[in-house]
What we know:
This protein is mainly α. Helices cover 64% and strands 6% of the residues.
Amino acid sequence: MDSREPDRPAADPHPDLQALGVQLRRLNGELNRLVHGFAAGQGLHPTDVQALAAILDSAEPLTPGALRHRLGLTSGAVTACVDRLERAGHVSRVRESTDRRVVHLRYVPGAQARARRYFGPLAAAADRVRGGYSEDELTVVLRFLNDLNEELSQTTSPQA
């Protein structure tokens, strides 16, 4: 007779994998705490801050449709998000000069300064921690995080 719970794996995960999972959840919690604080201080929703990060980090200008896809939002939700960000002075909608139907989302330069001030302690903490690692170690960490992000971006979760 099998006494295991149906959803529980047969063996505990590798201790290193478990420790990694704990640390990734802890990092996610700390980042969420900071994001929620910034959002509250700006009169925004935490998803709006995710949108700001997506706009800032994008290699090319984002359209609302591309932002919707990146964040997994409905078209109505992304419109409400962009409306809030625009009202708060964080982004502007800019029509493409060659095709006026295309709208790009641009991060307003003054808003970037507000975000830098708020997230400055996060950058300083990352810089302090980074100082304890060699260039080779940092290269491995960055490669791991990039590979994990790429893998997760291709992963879909089953419906709960």
